[in-house]
User: Fold this.
Amino acid sequence: MMDTAMDASSEASRVRVEGVWKVFGRRAAEAREMAEAGAGREEIREAVGSVVAVRDVSFQVSPGETFVVMGLSGSGKSTLVRCVSHLIEPTEGTVEVCGTELTQADSATLRDLRRRKMAMVFQHFGLFPHRTVVDNVAYGLEVQGVDRRERQERARELLETVGLEGWGDHHPQQLSGGMQQRVGLARALAVDPEVLFFDEPFSALDPLIRRDMQDELIELQMRLRRTLVFITHDFVEALKLADRIAIMNDGAFVQVGTPVEILTDPADDYVRAFTQDAPVVKVLQACSVMRPLEGTEVDHGWPKVSETTPLEAVLPHLLGSTEPVLVCDEQEAPVGLLHADEVAGVISPDRR
Amino acid sequence: MTALDGVRPGADGLQGAWRSGPARLALVLGGMILLVAAFRILTDFGVFPESWNIGLADPIDRARRWLITNQNSHWLYTVFLNPLTDTMDWAIRRLESLLRWFPWYCYPLFTGLGLWWTRGRLAGALGLAGVALIGVIGLWNEAFATLALMGVAVLVSMAIGIPLGIAAWRSDAVARITRPTLDTMQTMPGFVYLIPFVLLFGFGRVPAMISTVIFALAPVVRLTEVGLRTVPQSTVEASEMFGATERQTLRLVRLPQARPAIFAGMNQTTMLAMSMVVIAAFIGAGGLGQVVLQAMRSINVGKASEAGIAIVIMAIILDRFSTGVATADPGDDLPAIRWLAAVTAVGAVAGGVLGLNEFPKALGWRFAPYVNSLTDWARDNLYDIGGSGIGTGPFSDFVTTQLVIPLRELLSSGIPWPAMIGIGVVLGLWARGPRLAVGIGAALAAIGLLGMWELSMDTLAQVLLAVAATLAVGVPVGIMSSHNDLLRTALRPVLDFFQTIPSFVLLVPVITLFHVGRIPGIIASVVYALPAAVHYTDLGLRRVPVETHEAAESFGATRAQRLRQVEMPLAAPELMVAVNQVIMLILAMVVIAGLVGGGGLGLEAVRGLRRSDAVGRGFEAGIAIVLLAAILDRLTRAVADRLRPPAAV
Assistant:
């Protein structure tokens, strides 16, 4: 996933968010002024009675990139993703998805964009209890006016993709939480969107199921290469999935960077607090720590690992010898190098 | 109790002072007694003075006469009301003749199949037998008259109610109008709806149908709105995210998820329509209600019970079918049901062509004579068993002379009327605040000015006695049932059964035993309201969280202590809701009991419906009933609110 993040600046971005504010309640302008002068959320709420949920957020997401917004509850991350997907209107700022500015678009344009280009997976699944699983997955196509046979066929294909073949005629509430969210994922993928929004999709699941779903999402993303905007309150999840992470606090972005940047160079104590307890060696994979080859000469006798190997499995190789470890892609071709001192820099708590 | 007693920090001033604990209540009661004593000593006030009557009856009677003479000439009739009447009447007649075109045998068969489909084999068999029984006891024609009237009323209610519910959900402005209107409509006894429509339309099926629609409308509107409001936001967001239009989201996501609530509303509307169509016999609705009414007037208990049973059968079938249709799961029986339904359908068309629509006389069998002889036997033998002074007769006499009459006298003249109004005001002030107090005072004064003071106090006395009796039986049974799942399971079908019976029909068995007078009305209303008392008590106590039980037990509380110190205070608001429901049901029933000699406002209203020269008085009585209902309803609801623990911040 690293490679797409690297050339983010060279390609047009799929999602562009510019100076977005969201103020709930009246007297938005006053609240904004106070926020710009540095007042906290509580202070503003007491003074003018409105809540500044998102303050001056800007970011861009490149095609194929996974952009994770991580924040604790009340940090404004859910509001932010709703502003970006335009389920709620931002108070100020511009949001552009696939080159169309949503803040300017009329309802027909917005509807068309939603039908063809974007989809969302919800925290509590948002499945329709009155429809069978296959009809849930086919919903987006039904709204588009695709005829029944075609949409059912496509829906069954997608159920296979997420590992739910044979469950199509059940109702969602008859499925376990993990399976329900697979339905949610299949439903979002059914319309073949370019941009996918995830609003804490796995937070309602058991830890083990959550891990499975994360692994599957990574695997799916490797194949499909969509643009993902992923909201979570789980720092470990963010490290695991993200090409880039934005840490959000009190409505604003505190730091935006790759997982390695966040771990090695936290912007402030708030971010540092998260990095302290992160099981770094389990979460980080070889590809996110490696130095890309870029023409460096390699010795094919060096130990080899795949891109997705977690750091903890690389460590024995590094500790056992002074040689670097070679990181290879699926075709066994070398793509990067891991040096002991650089890896130590990422995992050592002193350096964070 | 501390959570309930404490003076709330925000409530200061006069209202705050009134809104504190039981000590204040004692003060209030003491004040009332002083008030009464002062009025009795210092003045000679008693009954509300006749000379203050504002005389609403005369203008109403004049209006009625004017309406009768102008029925065929005035534009209000020729342009508006007569075409409306004709259309409705046409619809009812069309539906009836359509229903009657099909052969008699297809009805028991279709009912049986329908209940088999929704509720299983036993229900199907009982349904088939039930419908056949209506024909057997010779009430086939009457049953279809009732069914046609009801069918049109229910269809009209749905056609108005569902769109209105959607409008109320969509627009807060509409909801702000519909909600209080529906609340008020539901607190009024169905009986009073008949009066204005009889005034406007005269007697017949159309005013009966219109009042039925208005009486039955509330649940379907309310539950459509509630159903739409409770659709999870996440599913609506999901739909929006797929680019669904507002209309697509409504049709594909909101309405299907609101369907169970809308079905529940349709069921309640159907049941209310059923009970109202029976009562509407008073204004010429015809059908089964008419048979009950005439039989009761001539004290032909046997005939009345036949029609009563036909009504109960219809009500139960409609209820079971309409509650089951949303969750029908016939399983393996489905092919058999389909096959039989197809055969029946073919048979229905064939029979229709052959004109087999009359229920065969050869199958007739009447049980009225047996009931009549049972009634005679009861009168001869139970009225005063062996001359011992024990029996229904002496019991009636005792209750009448020792309880009903003294209480009536106390309320109507024993307590001077200004003191009575004062008591109402003080109670309103204590329960909620100045607004309610003023409202109650005004309503009581209006009752006096309408010249309905004595009759209202008569009705109030009966209501209070019936409420006391209902709670004395219902609350302990509810407490037992909340602690005993076995008892609850045993009680459920009984409670369900009694709640399905249209109120009017309950009078029939009671007059078998107690003849006419005030006592059968009071007893029927107790029976009518008892299920609600048991149900809400049970519900309230069961809602008390298990943790609080366990907490109380861990401190070593006995069962009685737990009930008294934990469960009852926590369930108090729900219990007060039970009291509210009981009062409203009893008032509705006591009013109808005017028909069997219950006296009070009910009798006056019944007379107004029966004789065109008494419409004015009947109208006044109707207003008094509405005012009385409003006072009792608001007061008990205010007390229920008071008992609620402070809401979480």
